[in-house]
Amino acid sequence: MSENVSTNPALAAQQNDSSFDNVWQELKWRGLVHVSTDENELEKALAGDSLTYYCGFDPTAASLHLGHLVQLLTMRRLQLAGHKPLALVGGSTGLIGDPRASGERVLNTPEIVAGWVQSLQDQIKHYISFDGENGARMVNNLDWTQGISAIEFLRDIGKYFRVGTMIKKELVAKRLNSEEGISYTEFSYQILQGYDYLQLFREYNCTLQFGGSDQWGNITSGTELVRRVEGKTVHALGTPLITNSDGTKFGKSEGNAIWLDAELCSPYTFYQFWLNQSDADVLERLKVFTFRSREEIKELERSVKEEPFKREAQRTLAWDVTSLVHGEEATRKVIAAAEALFGKGNIADIDEATLQSVAAEVKSAELTAENATAINALVATDLVSSKAEARRAVEQGGASINNTKVDDGEALIDESAWLHGKYLLVRRGKKNLAVITRG
């Protein structure tokens, strides 16, 4: 396991909103409480002395995504309130996979899972602090499960679970009633997660676990196991699954997850995702994904109502989240690139990775240097439906290459115009943008 060192300078500037009586009240205002164990007792615990809490992340991919960011920021809010986080990356549960509504998971090799464990641990260090009296600790459930035999596990842990209760868990019940059913492997996942809570309670006096509300059945398997084995009451919290105002799933862009890894989702794409949030959704996003205060968000709400064309709330959201995830320098670069794309800066300053991201988001096509005329570019990218329409666009002054108006649509585009030797930005009118990649 790598060293537990925080890597994000943005952590130092983060703080909870002092206008709330306690962190529980702030969590509720931000919409982060969907379900919990005894609310009054949990509020008292969070308003009292420092407690230890944990949230688990299973390595089912090489990167975390926006759903995980909800949990990471919730961990940070509790840490800022003086409580101590345990970040659990599931080296053993990642080998099993929690039940999904859509069917059985494909099991990955131990080598792949181990690599993903390391990747997720490195990412988590970016969002919570490992310094100070309540610095976080990284834990891996493989450390306490790999040495247990099947007999020991069934005798010492399995005996505390009741099958009647286990099959009533929402996802388990769905799978049992499906044509495919559910394997014993995935059915047993909740026992493993329950054992995690028991182990962390014993070793670190951890008394709160939280996660997405879709994990509530697994989470409460832990509270019940601690009660049965140790005779102690511990807490649990389920955050809501974030959806758009129209009820669709949040965190998807053209069918793809919004990953926190820049290699899987570029800073440009990431920034544009937040910038394109609707007026109906942006205020709730500010509450969940930023550390803006209640007063600041109220002012942004006024802007949304009175001056929506300025999109101040969206720009604030995009800046805050992108600079948190990718850093301020990268965020400034993508803002400058977006402005340059529409003629407000030097287009030659846009780096190649950003141009590649732009090409993935707009209409694009491939041309060789020998075929690269403005007319061919307009047609290839479907900015026009025919060469005749392309000629009219050029004649009317409505076509440009790299933000320079085209005068001769039949002329080959000069070699020096290719950005990074391989890209051309093609535009019809002010808003219709496309990218030509050199073939």
From TrEMBL:
<dbReference type="Pfam" id="PF22421">
    <property type="entry name" value="SYY_C-terminal"/>
</dbReference>
<keyword id="KW-0547">Nucleotide-binding</keyword>
<dbReference type="InterPro" id="IPR001412">
    <property type="entry name" value="aa-tRNA-synth_I_CS"/>
</dbReference>
<dbReference type="InterPro" id="IPR054608">
    <property type="entry name" value="SYY-like_C"/>
</dbReference>
<dbReference type="InterPro" id="IPR002307">
    <property type="entry name" value="Tyr-tRNA-ligase"/>
</dbReference>
<protein>
    <recommendedName>
        <fullName>Tyrosine--tRNA ligase</fullName>
        <ecNumber>6.1.1.1</ecNumber>
    </recommendedName>
</protein>
<feature type="binding site">
    <location>
        <position position="193"/>
    </location>
    <ligand>
        <name>L-tyrosine</name>
    </ligand>
</feature>
<keyword id="KW-0436">Ligase</keyword>
<comment type="similarity">
    <text>Belongs to the class-I aminoacyl-tRNA synthetase family. TyrS type 1 subfamily.</text>
</comment>
<keyword id="KW-0963">Cytoplasm</keyword>
<dbReference type="Pfam" id="PF00579">
    <property type="entry name" value="tRNA-synt_1b"/>
</dbReference>
<keyword id="KW-0694">RNA-binding</keyword>
<feature type="binding site">
    <location>
        <position position="189"/>
    </location>
    <ligand>
        <name>L-tyrosine</name>
    </ligand>
</feature>
<feature type="short sequence motif" description="'KMSKS' region">
    <location>
        <begin position="249"/>
        <end position="253"/>
    </location>
</feature>
<comment type="subunit">
    <text>Homodimer.</text>
</comment>
<feature type="binding site">
    <location>
        <position position="252"/>
    </location>
    <ligand>
        <name>ATP</name>
    </ligand>
</feature>
<dbReference type="InterPro" id="IPR002305">
    <property type="entry name" value="aa-tRNA-synth_Ic"/>
</dbReference>
<dbReference type="InterPro" id="IPR024088">
    <property type="entry name" value="Tyr-tRNA-ligase_bac-type"/>
</dbReference>
<dbReference type="InterPro" id="IPR024107">
    <property type="entry name" value="Tyr-tRNA-ligase_bac_1"/>
</dbReference>
<dbReference type="InterPro" id="IPR014729">
    <property type="entry name" value="Rossmann-like_a/b/a_fold"/>
</dbReference>
<feature type="domain" description="Tyrosine--tRNA ligase SYY-like C-terminal">
    <location>
        <begin position="356"/>
        <end position="434"/>
    </location>
</feature>
<feature type="binding site">
    <location>
        <position position="54"/>
    </location>
    <ligand>
        <name>L-tyrosine</name>
    </ligand>
</feature>
<dbReference type="InterPro" id="IPR036986">
    <property type="entry name" value="S4_RNA-bd_sf"/>
</dbReference>
<dbReference type="GO" id="GO:0004831">
    <property type="term" value="F:tyrosine-tRNA ligase activity"/>
</dbReference>
<keyword id="KW-0648">Protein biosynthesis</keyword>
<keyword id="KW-0030">Aminoacyl-tRNA synthetase</keyword>
<feature type="short sequence motif" description="'HIGH' region">
    <location>
        <begin position="59"/>
        <end position="68"/>
    </location>
</feature>
<keyword id="KW-0067">ATP-binding</keyword>
<comment type="function">
    <text>Catalyzes the attachment of tyrosine to tRNA(Tyr) in a two-step reaction: tyrosine is first activated by ATP to form Tyr-AMP and then transferred to the acceptor end of tRNA(Tyr).</text>
</comment>
